Amino acid sequence: MPVKKAKQVLTECWDGLLPVSPQKIAEKVGVSVRAAANNEPYSGKAFLENGIKVIEYKSSEISLRQRFTIAHELAHHMLGHTNEGHKYREFQDDVSKFNLREADPFEIQANKFAAELLMPKEAVEYLIMEKNITSLEKLAELFQVSTVAMKYRLINLGWLK
Question: Among 96, 119, 125, 144, which is most buried by a count of CB atoms within 10 Å?
Fold first, then answer.
């Protein structure tokens, strides 16, 4: 479901240009995005504030991390994690807890959504098959993600082992 939802959001809100802007997409679907205070202990947070969906991210982190954080937190809103029978639900993703072996199903779903949103399968495959771009570093640069995120995306899409 997270990948399907990300594809739907891309279809409805993405202009087709790389890199995908998670902030612009969030704003198009009515989610407010803002920098958190730098002393906050989290990288990102998704919550409801007076009925408005809000994403906060740590502006002191590098832009690649901010982009993934915004996409990840957008997933929590788009997948209903912030309003499933809860008046208020908050997700705090600090760096020490953010890994691929995260056991929380909401976090796994949010990571899958974020990967599809930032590195759409069709765009990855187009660049590899049609433009012959196979360099991990070049793909990461085009999608404006870390090489680690790009590597895992290529593994999950079957392009790397």
Answer: 119
Q: What is the mean pLDDT of residues 48-57?
A: 90
Q: What are the two backbone dihedrals, phi and then psi, of residue 45, each rounded to the nearest 5 degrees? A: -150, 135
2-118 topology per CATH: Arc Repressor Mutant, subunit A (1.10.10)
Instruction: Round to the nearest angstrom and report the end-to-end CA distance of the chain.
Output: 24
pLDDT in tens, 83-94: 754 433 444 554
Q: Give the pTM.
A: 0.88
